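DATA SHEET
Item: assembly model
Revision: 1
Owner: S.N.
Input lines:
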Amino acid sequence: MMKEDKWLDGLRDRMKDYSEPVPDNLWADIEKDLEVTPKVIPMRGRWQMVAAVALLLVVSSLTLWFWHSPAVEYMEQQSAKVEEVLPVISEVTPQPLLAEEKKETPSKAIVKRKASDSVFSIIHECGIYEDMTLVQEEAEKDSVDAPVVVPEEKNDPKEEHPLIRRKALIAENVTTSPKKKSSSLNLGISVGNGLMGSGGISGVSDFINVQTPEISIPGDSTNHSTDNRKQAALHARSASKINSLDYQALEKKHRIPLVVGVSLRWALNEKWALESGLTYTMLSTDLSLGNQNGEQKLHYVGIPLKVSRELWSDKRWHVYAMAGGAVEKCVYGSLKMNDKWNMSDVNQRLEVDELQWSIQASVGAQYRLAERVGVYVEPGVAYYFEDGSKIETIRKDKPLNFNLQVGLRLTLKK
Amino acid sequence: MNETELVKRCGKGDNLARKQLYERYAGQLLAVCIRYTGDREVAQDILHDSFLNVFRSIGHFVYQGEGSLKAWLHRIVVNEALGYLRQQSVSLSHEVVMDDIPDVEDSEEDDWETIPPKVILQFVQELPSGYRTVFNLYVFEEKGHKEIARLLGISEHSSSSQLSRARALLMKKVNQYRKQMRR
């Protein structure tokens, strides 16, 4: 291109760094116009803070409510009942046995079986089926032992003890076995998205708020009945900005986010567990302005921290509620734009220094496929706090997000 | 303040940093605007809008070493200027009238040093709008005729002939100027 023309090269070198004196008032004018575009966000931010606090209250009260909910009370009653019933049974059974001591063995066996059957059925109700086999064994043992035991019982008031002891053992199992459902360590793999992810075209309202008085809204350049052609040209020019990123002016259509995660869950006790892990989120936005089209992609890595509480469970199902939060960081971002004239293809890396905080609450149902494998579905709601960055994402546009997560949970350690 | 720091602070809206950025580059960028538009007043308006644009999007600018900031600012300004010129696009696509272009001999190659840049800028300003745009894009943005043709919606042939004529006109002015200086 320029190889052959030294004359023009010379001209270029001469002019390259040339600087013209700038009129004094120019900076002041620029400064003034910069201030006219105040950050609209703080106003929204205030409202969002209120919404966030409200959500937190709702989540905590929901958790408390579940804590005292009928289902849980029922559960607790049942466990209590079992504990009550068992000693009663053990108290009761010896008597009939004693009374029926002279009767034939079969009837004693029957009585015994009945007792153990009722224990069996209560435990079944509570949904702890692993122990049923255990209980049955115990029951069978009892019925088998009955003939042997009876003579002892007749003589020794303490003979109740073996029975009680055995029943007590069963009771122990009943209360402690729930742990087996919410095992001490669980690994989860999940995929989720935002159900209320995409909206219409956002950023248009931003456009109206943020634009300086001088710059017209695209397509409206004809509105300006300006004094001279120069002014008209200037206004129309701004309407077709094709230079590097009049970011605020871009029309943005956010796509549904994609979230993939790995989680670890530690059971704290029978009902409560702590869950953390790693998530990867991709936020994608379609951009357009006038003739330009493009795409913004942001990749986030996040660490969630949640507390889960079991609401209900049986041999196959496990229903729980979760609440907590997460912090995410954008690890890579890109913005690509090109326009009709291909004059300024923009291919730019985006950097977001700010962290993205969020709070989340959800309810989940897990179905046990195998001894150590379960599949779960977890609808939930999340609120994403304003991160203070200039990059617009769906998190800013729709901070309250309903989502659905599905995944696999593996029990690593019982 | 070094440039990395400057960019970072401007991105955060630090007014002092913004003013510093402006003071460092406004002069050069104004010269570019004048070179493209040919009119000082229009150039100032374009500079104004360019800076608003700069400060709005500097948050997304990734500083990549010496010269990257200048190049980025330069690009914004050129795009603004071209946008303006496109509104005046009538003159860009006009075919060149042959008559008023003189035949000029090539002047000495390395003589730019004796001519003040201000004068050169004046010469460029005086070029007809169409020639000037092609000239600027070719010489300063170092674009080829194919690309210029695509950008301005003219033929490649039109682009190269407009460049030759711009070049010839400039040379004539330079020669005239030198003659005047020698007196």
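QC remark: Residues 92-182 of chain B form a domain with the Arc Repressor Mutant, subunit A fold (CATH 1.10.10.10).
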